[in-house]
Specification:
The structure holds two protein chains of two kinds. Chain A has seven helices and 18 strands. Chain A has helices at residues 18-28, 70-80, 92-104, 205-215, 223-228, 259-265, 294-309; strands at residues 4-7, 10-11, 14-15, 34-39, 56-61, 85-89, 108-113, 115-117, 120-125, 130-136, 140-144, 159-164, 171-178, 191-195, 218-221, 249-253, 270-275, 288-291. Chain A has a seven-stranded parallel beta sheet with strand order 7-11-6-1-4-5-12, sandwiched between helices. In chain A, strands 15-14-16-17-18 form a five-stranded parallel beta sheet. In chain A, helix 4 links the parallel strand 14 and strand 15 (218-221). Chain A starts with a strand and ends with a helix. Chain B has one domain (2-200): 3-Layer(aba) Sandwich (Rossmann fold), CATH 3.40.50. Chain B has helices spanning 36-52, 67-76, 92-106, 125-133, 185-193, 231-240, and strands at residues 2-7, 10-12, 19-21, 24-26, 32-34, 54-62, 80-85, 110-114, 136-141, 143-146, 149-156, 159-166, 169-173, 197-200, 208-214, 223-226. The radius of gyration of chain B is 21 Å and the shape is globular. The model of chain B has no long low-confidence stretch (mean pLDDT 95). The chains are: A alpha/beta, B alpha/beta. The structure holds flavin-adenine dinucleotide (FAD). Flavin-adenine dinucleotide (FAD) binds at residues 196-198, 222-225, 237-242, 254-256, 258, 260-261, 264, 274-277, 280, 293-295 of chain A.
């Protein structure tokens, strides 16, 4: 069996829980991975050592990990990772890194893996309208979608070694542009409530925001909402030309369920649809569908969720 | 003067229904179009040319039927069109090797591409060729301004950042706020006459084999309720059945 190498997912200066899902994927490919933690502060790597099913942790410490730079990161990680199958998360930055690492090693990359069946990798193609199963002959870089593999449990105490890395940044961040809104980003959220043209006006998104605040969700939007209403920013757009999201729960309100919207959210674990048209295509993908206007349904949803959270 | 390249790919129209026959996607009845993000890449490449002078070469990989996407790019305003002639399945490794050798051959200093092709959705090509060429790269940009250095806006953790990139570089484009120009009559006429520069290529062997294509597993039918009051029950189920609240 090939050696596997998991590149830990870091968010807000800590190991992101997705990392334990990547370990499960590595185990499914047949081996206990080495977990590489790209970091500026090596103490954050200790948390990775407690994930069961790994062989060891390398805290790869360097100032270059303060900001993402594809070239610098790939050079530094390549220098410490043994040959084998490299596994990253499938968010945009990690997919970029996986592609860089693969090219650096002249190996193939398989992105957005959602299942591993007998060593073969399954990923969506044509925006999820079909699935592709491939076999690997040799090393590869593989990115794995979040919220699909079960997280490997805690409780181990693997060896953590610290390695100092050096690397050159090929790009430079000039200025951080804070988001116009301080709301949670759809790409980082476990629960998303999205509004479409059926919301009628951008002001009505305040109803979605209220629910989002109650349950810790991000607010998303369809392209029709983004293109029609200036205050609804492209950063909120889910779909083919927006973000691909994989939350535990996706609530679509006043969204018809066009194929390009589905492309961005159909792999969500649970989907709730609220739409006044019983024939809207979104209902074919919903675990829970409510045929009603949002004016009717959202106040009830808000009240029930608030009661639960208290 | 900048020697600019843009990568374009022909993909099924995003509205197309995808059918499978004999374990493979069957695209014979599907309308093929330029991958939507590539439209943003072409637009950004043309804006770069307008700012710095120079020429834009559009490059695709495919069989003769892929000439259409090059003609579309020509109609919008690129100067040269190149097709790397290859009709077989390529893994990322062999595809990127072929493209990067053509980029070197034409002497491009900057390469634009879409953030991902709408068929594979992978987004590997831009960063992959940058690595092979030893160039900088920034992915998923939403805007760009051009001088000796390109200044782009791209997502980073927690928001967006303005990032400066010196050439040579590969830049992949997300939707952003750019309005893509449409072809005019003159462009369409020129595209008709334009000659595609066809380059032969010998792909290296692939370390990935496709076992099968299949339709996505259909979700068991969900529960549907009439009327807004049902939202209370759905909220309960989200907590007690789905365990997501
Ligand atoms: C190349 C390409 C890329 C695209 N990329 C994307 C993308 O990234 N993301 C995306 O979303 N779309 C994308 N689209 C657009 C997509 O095809 C649809 O046009 C879009 O998703 C429709 O948005 P919508 O569902 O909000 O609007 P509509 O289709 O107009 O649906 C509105 C829905 O609201 C319902 N409604 C109306 N009033 C109420 C009410 N009071 N209460 C409850 N329900 C109500 C209606 O029944 C209807 O179903 C793309 C299209 C193309 C061609």
């Amino acid at each position: 069996m090939s050696q596997t190498i998991v590149i830990a997912e870091i968010a807000k200066g800590a190991i992101h829980p997705t990392t334990a899902e990547l370990v499960t994927a590595a185990n499914a490919l047949g081996s206990a991975p080495i977990v590489i933690v790209p970091c500026t502060d090596s103490t954050i790597a200790d948390a990775a050592g407690s994930i069961q099913g790994i062989s060891k942790v390398i805290a790869l410490k360097s100032d270059i990990f303060a900001e993402y730079d594809a070239s610098g990161w790939a050079t530094a990680i390549d220098a410490v990772a043994p040959s084998g199958i490299i596994i990253t998360s499938a968010n945009p930055q990690s997919k970029d890194l996986a592609a860089r690492l693969a090219a650096r090693r002249n190996i193939s990359v398989v992105q957005d893996v959602v299942a591993i069946e007998g060593g073969n990798l399954v990923s969506p193609i044509y925006s999820g309208k079909a699935m592709q199963t491939v076999s690997l002959a040799g090393d590869a870089a593989v990115s794995v979608r979040a919220n699909i593999f079960a997280a490997s449990p805690q409780g181990a105490s693997a060896d953590v070694s610290v390695v100092d890395a050096t690397g050159d940044m090929a790009t430079a961040v000039e200025e951080f542009l804070a988001r116009a809104s301080t709301r949670l980003d759809v790409a980082e959220a476990n629960i998303i409530i999205s509004g479409g043209r059926g919301m009628g006006s951008p002001d009505n998104f305040s109803h979605l925001e209220k629910i989002a605040d109650t349950i810790g969700a991000a607010v998303g939007a369809s392209r029709a909402a983004v293109d029609t209403w200036e205050p609804i920013s492209h950063a909120m757009q889910v779909g083919q030309t927006g973000k691909t999201v994989n939350p535990n729960l996706y609530i679509a309100v006043g969204i018809s369920g066009a194929i390009q919207h589905l492309a961005g959210m159909r792999s969500s674990k649970y989907i709730v649809a609220i739409n006044k048209d019983a024939d809207a295509p979104i209902f074919q993908h919903a675990d829970y569908g409510i045929v009603a206007t949002w004016e009717e349904a959202l106040p009830v949803l808000q009240a029930s969720l608030s009661a639960m959270m208290n | 003067m900048t020697n600019i390249a843009v990568l374009v790919k022909q993909v099924p129209d995003t509205n197309a229904r995808i059918v499978i026959s004999d374990d493979r996607v069957d695209l014979s009845a599907v309308k093929m179009v330029m991958s939507p993000y590539d439209e943003f890449a072409v637009e950004t490449a043309l804006q770069h040319r307008e700012a710095s002078g120079g020429e834009v070469t559009a490059i695709t990989v495919g069989g003769a039927s892929a000439d259409k996407v090059l003609k579309d790019a020509k109609a919008i305003g690129v100067d040269h069109i190149v097709r790397i002639d290859c009709d077989s399945y390529l893994d990322s490794n062999s595809l990127q090797s072929m493209i990067s050798s053509v980029i070197s051959e034409i002497g491009a200093e900057v390469v634009y591409c879409g953030k991902a092709a709408a068929d594979t959705g992978a987004g590997s090509t831009g960063p992959g060729i940058a690595e092979r060429l030893g160039w900088a790269s920034v992915s998923n940009i939403i805007s760009a301004t051009f001088s000796d250095i390109i200044s782009v806006v791209a997502p980073v953790q927690g928001g967006n950042a303005r990032i400066s990139v010196s050439l040579p570089a590969v830049i992949s484009c997300d939707k952003g706020n750019v309005k893509v120009r449409k072809p005019n009559v003159k462009g369409i006429m020129q595209a008709k006459k334009a000659q595609v520069d066809v380059k032969s290529a010998s792909p290296s062997s692939s370390s990935i084999s496709i076992i099968s294509h299949s339709l996505p597993p259909s979700k068991p039918a969900g529960k549907t309720y009439e009327g807004g009051a049902a939202a209370a029950e759905v909220a309960q189920l989200l907590r007690d059945e789905a365990n997501v609240i």
